[in-house]
Amino acid sequence: MMARLLPIFRGKPDLTGTMQHLTADSLAGERHLRVLIESVHDYAIYMVDPNGIVVSWNGGAQRFKGYRASEIIGQHFSRFFRAEDVRDGLPARVLATALTEGRFEAEGWRVRKDGGHFWASVVVEPVRDDDGTLIGFAKVTRDITERRQAQQALEEAREALFQAQKLETVGRLTGSVAHDFNNLLQVIGNSLELVSARLPPDLPDVQRHMATARSALETAGAVTQRLLAFARRQPLQPEAVDLNALARGMADLVRRSVGEDVLLRLDLTDDICSAWADPHQVESGILNLAVNARDAMPNGGTLTIATRMRHIDRAAAAANEVEEGEYASLSVADTGIGMSAEVLARAVEPFFTTKPVGHGTGLGLSQLYGFARQSGGFLTLDSREGYGTKVTLLLPCHTESAAEPAVEKGPAAEPEAPSSIYRLLLVEDEVLIRLVLAEALEEQGHVVHQAGNADAALDILSDHPDIQFLVTDVGLPGTNGRQLAELALGRWPGLKVLFLTGYIDRADTSRLPPGTQMLTKPTSIDALLAKLRQMAAG
C-alpha cells in the first residue's frame, strides 16, 4: 500500500523521471488515492524524503499536529519529537529501523505545533520506485492519548485494588496476631501483679527486676496497640473534634518537637465541620507526622498544618471505600527529601521504614492509616523525591447519628482499697486469663464465678441471682459476649456489664448494649477494680 502513496508528494522534490512512467489512467487513479488520503482525518498520513524532510501532508496530519501543509512541507520531521528524544537521536533511529527492518512501529510522545504533547501510535515504512531506489518514507500516525489515559486509569485502579486487598489481608493477619499477643500480655501482666504483691518488701533487687518487667510489658502493649490501629481494631473514643482548635493547641508542642530549624505554618480554614474522631488519636497522628517531617528535613525547612473541607464524590468514595459526602481534612506537609515511587507504594505497610535499625518501628503511618479507616475516613499520601511529602487525614463530619458508645482504655489507676465486696461472673474462653484474673480478684476478697462460654454463664447467672457484675470477653466462641450481654440484660436488667477485649471492631462497638462499659486488654487489676467501683457508684 505504501508504494502507492508516491504521487501524493507535494512541494519541490524532483520526481520528473518517475512521473514520465505514469500513464493518464494511472495518474487519474493516483489523484483519486490522493483525494482519499487527504480526506482522512483520523490518521496523520504524510511522507518524508530519505533525509527526513516532509514532502506531503494530509488533513489528519494537520488536525493532529496543528501545521498547515504550507507551514510544514520542506521542514524536518524531527520537530514532531520532544527535545530529549531529538538529543537521543530517536528521529534518525526511526528511519534507520524502517530502512533495515522494512517497518518501524511504536508508541510514544509527539509534539504539536502549539507545544502540547500527545501519545502517538506510529508506523513508518520505506517507499521505493520501480527500480527499488529509496524515495522516502511513508508515515502513519494516530493520536491514542485518550486510549492510553483510559488504560493507565485501569492499571491504576487495578494497582489500587491490589494494594487495598494486600493491606486488608495484612490487616486481618496483624489484628489476629495482636489479639493473641494481647491475651499473652494480659496473663503476663496480671501474673507480675500477683507476684509483686506477694513479694516481701526486703527484696529490693527482685522488686527492681519486677518493675523492669512491667516496663517492658507496657512497651509491648504499646506495640500491639499500634498493630491493632493498622488492623482497624483499636478501641476508640470518638467525639466531635474542632480540628482548627486542636491544631492551634498543639502548635507549641509541635514547634518544640521539630526544632528551631523548621518553620511551622498553620493554614487553617474557618469553613470546616467538626470531625467525628478520637481527638487523642488525631493529636498522636499530628505529632508523629511532625517528627517524620523533621527527620525528612535534616537541614531545616517548612512544616505546614492545614485544614480544609472536602467533598468526596461517588467515584472517590467508592475508590476509598467510604461514604459519599463532606469530610474534614487535616494535612501535614513538609519541604523535605520526599519519597520515591517505590517507597510511597509501601509507606503504610506495618514495619516498613527507611530509617536505620533502631530509629523507628515503621508503625507510625500504618497506625494513622488504620485509624482513618476505622473512623470512617481515609488517608492520602502525596510525595516526590526532592519535593517533600504531604499526608492528608480525611475524617467524616460529626452528625447526631454518628455517636457510638464510649470505649475506654484501662487507665493506670492508683491502687485503692475496694469500698465493698463485689460478686461477679467472669466469662473468658482463654483459660489462663480467666484463672489469673479470678485469682487476683479473689485475693482482694471479691466473689468470682467463672465460665468459658455463654451457655455456662447463663446457667451460673440463673443459679446465682445475687451476681452484680458480668465481666465478659467480646470474642467468645459461639454466642459472643455482646449477644450474651443482651440475653443476660433481658432476664436480669439490673446486671452491670463490663466488656474486656483484645481488639475491637467498629461494628461491634456500634451494637453494644446501652449502659455497658468496656476495657481493653491488657488491663491491670487496679484498672479493672477502678472501673467496677465507677460502675457500682453509677
Automatic annotation (TrEMBL):
Keywords: Kinase, Phosphoprotein, Plasmid, Transferase. InterPro entries: CheY-like_superfamily, HATPase_C_sf, HATPase_dom, His_kinase_dom, HisK_dim/P_dom, HisK_dim/P_sf, PAC, PAS. SMART domains: HATPase_c (SM00387), HisKA (SM00388), PAC (SM00086), PAS (SM00091), REC (SM00448). GO terms for molecular function: phosphorelay sensor kinase activity. Its EC number is 2.7.13.3. It catalyses: ATP + protein L-histidine = ADP + protein N-phospho-L-histidine. This is histidine kinase. The lineage of its organism: Bacteria, Pseudomonadati, Pseudomonadota, Alphaproteobacteria, Rhodospirillales.
